[in-house]
């Protein structure tokens, strides 16, 4: 996600798509079904970007707004916004996991952490019909040992060292990209 938020500002659409696509196996590890939603939006972005070597998400979104196409289901505006919202959930989840003093003895379940992250992020964008379904999917998130050891490959002795460092590094890169995306959508009164 660092490449998606280059030093000069803006959001590099190609790098955003690449980073989001690469996240698929990690999202699959959560076991709650969000990978499919992300991939649908990735496909829409890839289609919209076509063969362009670089695409600035802000410029693409502004062009769609000017044409009156921002609400089209296959627009860059909608696809990047919803992937940003999903990634905001992921970022919140990681940050909530990292709040624990000790990842091995944290009494909170990953499912509870994921549900809390959902309530702080995506829930406000879902209607009353979707919220219970989303919360039910989040209950399918694996337990801590299954997630960190079996799915992510960290031995228990690495949870407070290597896993914590990797998660913090990923979170920093993701949050920088999300701040840029929030700035893209702020003029249109859209929250990620």
Structure description:
The longest helix has 27 residues, at about 160-185. With about 190 residues, the chain is mainly alpha-helical. Helices cover about 65% and strands about 0% of the residues. It is built from 9 helices and no strands. The model has no long low-confidence stretch (mean pLDDT about 90). The two termini are about 15 Å apart. It is globular and about 55 Å long. α1 (about 15-20) runs antiparallel to α3, α3 (about 35-50) packs across α5 and α5 packs across α6.
Draw up the topology in text.
Elements: H1 13-22, H2 24-30, H3 34-49, H4 57-67, H5 76-98, H6 110-120, H7 130-138, H8 144-151, H9 159-185
Helix pairs in contact: 1-3, 2-3, 3-5, 5-6, 5-9
> What percent of residues adopt helix (DSSP H or I)?
55-70%
Distance between the termini: 16 Å
Which geometry do the CA atoms define?
Answer: globular
Low-confidence region ranges: none
* DSSP E strands, number: 0
Individual helix count: 9
Query: Radius of gyration over alpha carbons?
Result: 17 Å
Structural class: mainly alpha
What is the N-to-C order of secondary-structure elements (H for helix, E for strand)? HHHHHHHHH
Give the tags.
192 residues; mainly alpha; globular
Write a concise synopsis of the structure shown:
By secondary structure, the protein is mostly helical. It is 64% helix and 0% strand. The mean pLDDT is 92.
């Amino acid at each position: 996600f660092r490449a998606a938020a280059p030093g000069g500002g803006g959001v590099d659409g190609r790098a955003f798509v690449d980073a989001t696509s690469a996240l698929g196996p990690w999202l699959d590890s959560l076991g709650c079904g969000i990978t499919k939603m992300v991939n649908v939006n990735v496909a829409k972005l890839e289609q919209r970007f076509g063969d362009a070597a670089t695409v600035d998400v802000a410029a693409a979104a502004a062009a769609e707004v000017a044409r009156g196409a921002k609400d089209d289901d296959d627009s860059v505006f909608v696809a990047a916004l919803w992937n940003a919202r999903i990634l905001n959930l992921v970022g919140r989840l990681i940050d909530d996991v990292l709040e624990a003093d000790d990842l091995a003895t944290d009494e909170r379940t990953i499912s509870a952490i994921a549900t809390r992250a959902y309530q702080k992020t995506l829930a406000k964008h879902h209607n009353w019909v979707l919220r219970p379904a989303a919360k039910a999917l989040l209950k399918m998130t694996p337990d801590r040992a299954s997630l960190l050891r079996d799915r992510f490959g960290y031995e228990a002795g690495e949870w407070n060292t290597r896993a914590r460092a990797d998660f913090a590094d990923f979170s920093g890169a993701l949050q920088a990209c999300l701040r840029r995306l929030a700035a893209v959508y702020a003029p249109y009164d859209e929250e990620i």
